[in-house]
Design a protein that fits this description.
The chain is of the alpha+beta class and 605 residues long. Helices cover 37% and strands 24% of the residues. A hairpin with a 5-residue loop joins strand 5 and strand 6. The N terminus is likely disordered.
């Protein structure tokens, strides 16, 4: 018998599957049958935390449903990531605007004839609406079992929390799409006011091509697209002026081939167009049509070009560099061509300035984050090692952290009590790093004020402060308390707030996954139950390894498989010290990460 989950699903607008406004919003969300990393994240969490074989982020269109997030589907649906509505339970969630919970679909009149039962093996189903800001139901976040199942209240609370977070992600995307539409409308208006100038639209594209660049190579890449499309230039090179000398920054191609070497030879040739553009502070052009090929410097002839144009890249500080364009054939330069080249050079100067600003901002942000990360204390009986690695060379400083605090045990003099935390703030860039600093400080204060040193108490006090101060940071964390219990072992107590499970590595190479997930912190709480402390006795010689999701979560790779590979690496290096162990993890799992990474190792000695 189909039953509604007895909790308010939010203000849902029940216009049904065919509601035109709902379909417009669904289209604007930009999600379809292609895999989406964020949606895959929610589907994977449903599968893992509810222990179901199938979990879907299902969006219902006019004649089909698509799955931008899906785990556990059978073929051919796993590849196509879509089904017709004849195979859809989710359409009923959209039609009613309320959750749908079914223990045995074969006995339920609402869905007993649905083809998803024989074709996809859907027997037990629980789906929570995914809504936009106006309440339109776009689809559902659903958990599916192949056998009859009585869904527990705790399971439905988890699904409701994740659906709320997934709806928030959809609303953010729609808000970004609205902002992009507004920007596009503004740009069209600006272009319409400049219709009399034939190339004004092109000049605006120059600014767009290079204005957001974060590296000199990105500037050149934008210029290649522009110069090739507007002026037909096949080659673009950038030179910098440093201490009066020219230095080639980027040239055609990505390797130091012979042709690239010829471009570099222009640096020292006083008669070559780049050097003349600096000394004469004007655009210097040359073409075989001019008939002066024999007078062209040898360095320029070696490029094998039929025409070149070199323009100084200047701002109020003077000449910063040179933009040089090349054509394989001859070219007659018109005044409009020279105006466009000069304008491109002006935009290039702005891009240089932006690149310097971004690189400075990234450097400051990363220095700030490194300053906020802990200098590991010296603790009798423990050896510690930790690493933080940012995602890439952009402003992805991220929100991952690690922390280790050592206290004196209030119950006995001389014995240390160590509180360890590793976590990950939702999001990237500077805001996430700032939130991370505040979260880490709040956790520290909570640990310091907690006489019991119980991880559940520390996390509870932190969450109260997180809510009460209005910070509203969201993410995952593991908080653990370590106490020596006798000369040969330590007592470990911990809680896991939605974070990848820690690993314990024994001296013989055996590894143990410390499972026991709780809810994430900072997301809407559908349940008020207290977090439960987990306890374990750890022998001397073992190593506790904590890490963030960038280690085991990679697009297109199963998390369980990745975790198994991590355990194998740790087993091979079980006899290594914490520093070597952490380095081994980063060597195997830290390359080309799409997320920042933290690894912390604690050896009990």
């Amino acid at each position: 018998m189909a039953e509604d989950y007895a909790q308010d699903a939010g203000a849902a607008t029940c216009g049904g599957v065919t509601d035109p406004q709902r379909l417009i919003v669904l289209s604007e969300a930009g999600l379809d049958a292609r895999s989406d990393p964020a949606m895959e994240w929610f589907a994977e969490r449903v599968r893992r935390w509810m222990r179901v074989p199938v979990a879907l982020v299902s969006l219902v269109r006019l004649d089909e449903q698509v799955f931008p997030g899906a785990v556990g589907l059978v073929e051919p649906f796993a590849s196509s990531r879509r089904t017709p509505l004849t195979h859809s339970f989710c359409q009923h969630v959209v039609a009613t605007g309320r959750p749908l919970v079914i223990d045995d679909a074969r006995a339920d009149p609402l869905v007993a004839s649905n083809l998803a039962i024989p074709d996809l093996g859907v027997v037990a189903y629980a789906g929570i609406p995914l809504t936009d800001e106006a309440g339109h139901v776009l689809g559902s976040l659903c958990a599916i079992d192949h056998d009859p199942r009585r869904w527990g209240a705790d399971e439905l609370e988890i699904l409701h929390d994740l659906a709320s977070a997934c709806s928030t992600e959809l609303r953010l995307r729609l808000a970004r799409r609205d902002a992009e539409r507004e920007r596009a409308d503004r740009d069209r208006l600006e272009l319409s006011l400049r219709e009399s100038f034939e190339r004004s639209q092109t000049l605006l594209e120059v600014s767009r091509s290079v204005g957001d660049s974060t590296s000199v190579e990105q500037v050149r890449a934008g210029l290649v697209d522009l110069a090739g499309g507007v002026l037909g230039a096949e080659h673009v090179a950038l030179f910098a002026v440093r201490d009066g000398d020219l230095q080639l920054l980027v040239a055609p191609g990505t390797e130091r081939t012979g042709a690239d070497r010829a471009w570099a030879d222009l640096e020292d040739d006083a008669q070559a167009p780049p050097r003349r553009a600096v000394t004469e502070q004007r655009i210097v052009t040359w073409s075989t049509e001019d008939g002066y090929e024999a007078l062209l410097p040898r360095s320029t002839r070696a490029l094998g070009l039929g025409a070149v144009a070199a323009a100084p890249v200047s701002d109020t500080r003077g000449v910063l560099g040179v933009l040089m364009l090349g054509w394989t054939g001859p070219r007659r330069f018109t005044p409009a061509d020279l105006l466009l080249v000069n304008t491109v050079a002006l935009y290039t100067a702005q891009a240089f300035d932006h690149v310097g600003w971004v690189q400075h901002r990234v450097s400051v942000a990363r220095q700030m984050q490194q300053a906020m990360l802990t200098t590991l204390p010296e603790v009798p009986g423990l050896q510690l090692a930790a690493r933080y690695v940012p995602a890439d060379d952009r402003e992805y400083v991220g929100g991952d952290w690690y922390d280790v605090l050592a206290f004196s045990d209030d119950t006995g003099p001389g014995d240390p009590v160590v509180v360890v935390s590793v976590g990950d703030i939702v999001g990237h860039a500077l805001d996430a790093a700032i939130d991370m600093g505040q979260v880490r400080s709040m956790l520290r204060q909570s640990a310091w004020d907690s006489t019991s040193r119980r991880p559940s108490t520390i996390m509870s006090r932190f969450e109260t402060a997180n809510d009460g101060t209005g910070l509203g940071a969201a993410g995952t964390a593991v908080v653990a308390c370590l106490r020596p219990s006798d000369p040969r072992q330590w007592a470990m107590t911990w809680i896991n707030a939605g974070h990848p499970e820690p690993l314990l590595v024994y001296p013989d190479g055996t590894t143990r996954l410390l499972d026991g997930h709780g809810r994430l912190f900072g997301l809407p709480r559908g349940s008020t139950e207290d977090r439960q402390d987990l306890e374990l006795t750890v022998p001397v010689g073992a190593t506790l390894v904590l890490y963030t999701d960038g280690i085991v979560e990679r697009r297109g790779v199963d998390v369980d498989e990745r975790t198994g590979e991590l355990r194998a690496v740790l087993a091979r290096h079980a006899g290594s010290g914490p520093d070597a162990l952490v380095d081994a993890v980063l060597d195997g799992f830290g390359r080309d990460a799409g997320d920042d990474i933290v690894v912390l190792a604690v050896r009990f000695v």
